[in-house]
UniProtKB/TrEMBL annotation:
This is Homoserine O-succinyltransferase. One of its GO terms (biological process) is L-methionine biosynthetic process from homoserine via O-succinyl-L-homoserine and cystathionine. It is an enzyme of class 2 (transferase). It comes from Colwellia psychrerythraea (strain 34H / ATCC BAA-681) (Vibrio psychroerythus). The gene is metA. The active site is at residues 142, 235, 237. CDD domains: GATase1_HTS (cd03131).
């Protein structure tokens, strides 16, 4: 079954043209099943592009999923029409009384800022704490992963001198781990970030297990052992052209911008890049929805039942 999204969301027609299985609200209303309730806290400036990328990853599942987009403040966006935000986004304060089966928190272009300099830091920490009590499983992506690990466990993020940009080979570390079930022994993932957390710091937290890593990009995927938090440092949701667009943007600011590694054919930016990671990205999100969300979540979705399935949460 498909994801269910509002009838007028721009992503609906884009994904339909790509042969991605989505369902309008009107069609979904005729099916008498308990859909998964998944919220997406979209911190990226270009929200419409990010919506399409994440919805594409969520679409290949046998579950029906109700999607709600969330923002944490009502500040005017430079990159997304206000009408779009008013029509399709809920303020966090307006939904925090609710419970969700799953939550995805995207990255944000805040890599060079100290957490204390992030204007909405107190609010995002409120979201992190709320999710502990009201969400069966949360996926933290890129900046959000580092921010959550700092907030929950005090793990410090370090900054590279040069941005890590490119497509890198990774390997899963546990043959019996459900989140990487079906993965090849080596799989590709795009990365685009300055920040990183040392592997030894992950290993110092007994509640966390590292699930996949790269010799070049470091820890890619980690999760709490009770399956309530998933930490993702790469971008399996990226389009084939996303790193190219970022390279053009950055090179316009600095002529010293390096080419994304292992990305262009013959390292030639004039040649169209080929996406080599989408199947594993889709499988990751499908596994998360199945094994970490659907198989874990209570049928009666309320805070007491969510706490009952995660009694060992220490945070």
């Amino acid at each position: 079954m498909p994801i269910k999204i509002p009838d007028q969301l721009p992503a609906l027609s884009i994904l339909d043209n790509e042969n991605i299985f989505v369902m309008s609200e009107n069609r979904a209303a005729s099916q008498e099943i308990r859909p998964m309730q998944v919220a997406i806290l979209n911190l990226m400036p270009n929200k419409i592009e990010t919506e399409v990328q994440i919805l594409r990853m969520l679409s290949n599942t046998p579950l029906q999923i109700n999607i709600e987009f969330i923002r944490i403040h009502k500040n005017v966006s430079k990159n997304t029409p206000e009408e779009h935000l008013e029509n399709f986004y809920h303020l966090f304060d307006d939904i925090k009384h609710k419970q969700y089966d799953g939550l995805i928190i995207t990255g944000a272009p805040l890599a060079l800022l100290d957490y204390s300099q992030v204007k909405f830091w107190d609010k995002i920490c409120e979201v992190f704490d709320w999710a502990e009590k009201n969400v069966t499983s949360t996926m933290f992506s890129c900046w959000a992963a580092h921010a959550a690990l700092y907030h929950h466990y005090g793990l410090n993020r370090h900054l590279r001198k040069e941005k890590l940009s490119g497509v890198f080979k990774h390997k899963p570390l546990d043959d019996k781990e459900s989140l990487t079930r079906g993965f090849d022994e080596n799989f590709n993932v795009p990365h685009s970030r300055y920040g990183y957390i040392d592997k030894s710091d992950y290993e110092s937290i007994p509640q966390i297990q590292i699930l996949a890593e790269s010799a070049d990009a470091g820890v890619y995927l980690a999760a709490s052992k009770n399956k309530q938090q998933v930490y993702l440092t790469g971008h399996p949701e990226y389009d084939a052209s996303t790193l190219h667009e970022e390279y053009l943007r950055d090179s316009n600011k600095s002529a010293d911008t390096a080419l994304p590694k292992n990305y262009y054919q013959d390292d030639d930016a004039s040649k169209s890049p080929v996406g080599s990671w989408r199947s594993h990205g889709s499988l990751l999100y499908t596994n998360w929805l199945n094994y970490y969300v659907y198989q874990m979540t209570p049928y009666q979705l309320d805070a007491s039942n969510i706490r009952a399935i995660h009694p060992d949460t220490v945070i």
